[in-house]
């Protein structure tokens, strides 16, 4: 039965139609927010997928260019692979919802969001987040929701919720907060050095809005929700678990995991699995297939008990202690900039490349305000970084997400195009991984940019803290600089990056049903303390400020300003003039609509030559000006001199020499370089020159 529900959300109407479309999905919500329309569906398989030990959830966010009245570019004229924005949106939908499905649920679940129409003032990403939560909540799929999400901006120091397009352009904060009815479950933020207390205020202001949305969703579920279906549960038999614990012993498991060397721990666990396999081959062969899951559970309980009850970390560190840190620059001799940052067994090499503004990334998506990207950060996570063997097939969703997080953290300190007219790309190559490589990438990128001579406004560092919780809200331990094992068996990965002045990026992932305000506040201030230590004690001694010049192998760029009305003169008919300048000098030239001309080349003399040509072209010609030009045509009455690409004037035969000559060829030859003085314009409107009157 078709039902429609509406509420006012941040000054616009949110409408949810249930039963109108996609009736064969387990749950479907036809979402309208303003004029933005998204179809969100939730579907699940009837049976669990065999042979897996995880929950197979996939989230899709499909951008269709018809939603903004565009036809896709290229030959095929059809949407291709998911854009980076679509992948990041899918991840931000997945992260708050995944912890709320049953931990032993093995049925395939797909949450699909089809963007049908976009109102730039009403975010389709937010609409999809709400739609996925509603579609799942009203479906028969087991789910301990609903969740709600709110976007927060800051304009002129004031918080704005679900900001409009104009507000997003002015905002110094881009924050997304997802909540359950009682707790915050996901945080994603980019900010222009927002102080910690202001960020906390924004997070919990969004949480209050989320509570109102959840009340609205609860009404929809009450009227339209289906009973949740039963599912096959995957549990380790208690008699097997008891036998394993008595055979291996908790003390032996603790000894196996209590080491700061990841490889040693893996060898210890491998030996335990081999012992259990040998035991159950004779004792109970049916248990052999369950060993992997059973040992995982045993490890998890052991690690959590050590941390929560014994106040011991697997590598012996204190709860607020960071692993050994190291930083160096100029690792690679001929790149434009390079740096390596090491934290324990996490190591990231970052390389900076500078290019002309023509090399900025063009974006073809649904956001009409963001059509290009001047700073790009890419992140690569090869299998050897964790001691595995796997062919490289390009970046997956995790790599794209980690690269975007580091990029978001650094964008606020990247100099403006006017101050530094370059396209900038940094690439983080993960050489070794054991916890929070994304934050290592931020530190390495900062060092690499400064080594390349990019005048960033401030140094940025990032750190991650973890969490282990007990039975009650006040029984928890926060861990600074979590390693892989603590992330794997813990409850939270809270990543915060920033400068001395404030936060530039946050990403929070959790595996439990939300965090209290107390935990979030303590986690944020713990990262601040660690961030300052990394900035002051590790990064600043390595390189304290950006180099004053770009390196010898980097392109040099100079920028001049011309009258926008003269852009056509510089470009010439069908690009003839500008192409001639490029051909003669070997430089790259970019011209903005405002008349900013960037000249890029590896040779300073070539850049100066090109700039001189451009200045000559855009100069209003006045009598008495002296130019240097080339003889390009000889006639009976005189010679034509090209003094800049596409610009020429005539020297009458009487103005060539102080002595009378019979033929122009007696003095001039095609290709001669001569100095001329401007005499103004002749009767035909041509520029008239003299050679003999040059002083």
UniProtKB/TrEMBL annotation:
Mg(2+) binds at residues 487, 493. One of its GO terms (cellular component) is cytosol. Involved in mRNA degradation. Catalyzes the phosphorolysis of single-stranded polyribonucleotides processively in the 3'- to 5'-direction. It comes from Anaerocolumna aminovalerica. Its EC number is 2.7.7.8. Its cofactor is Mg(2+). Transmembrane segments: none annotated. Residues 624-692 form the S1 motif domain. Gene3D superfamilies: GHMP Kinase, N-terminal domain (3.30.230.70), K Homology domain, type 1 (3.30.1370.10), Nucleic acid-binding proteins (2.40.50.140). Keywords: Cytoplasm, Magnesium, Metal-binding, Nucleotidyltransferase, RNA-binding, Transferase. GO terms for molecular function: 3'-5'-RNA exonuclease activity; magnesium ion binding; polyribonucleotide nucleotidyltransferase activity; RNA binding. Signal peptide: none annotated. It holds the Pfam family KH_1. PANTHER family: POLYRIBONUCLEOTIDE NUCLEOTIDYLTRANSFERASE (PTHR11252), POLYRIBONUCLEOTIDE NUCLEOTIDYLTRANSFERASE 1, MITOCHONDRIAL (PTHR11252:SF0). This is Polyribonucleotide nucleotidyltransferase. It is an enzyme of class 2 (transferase).
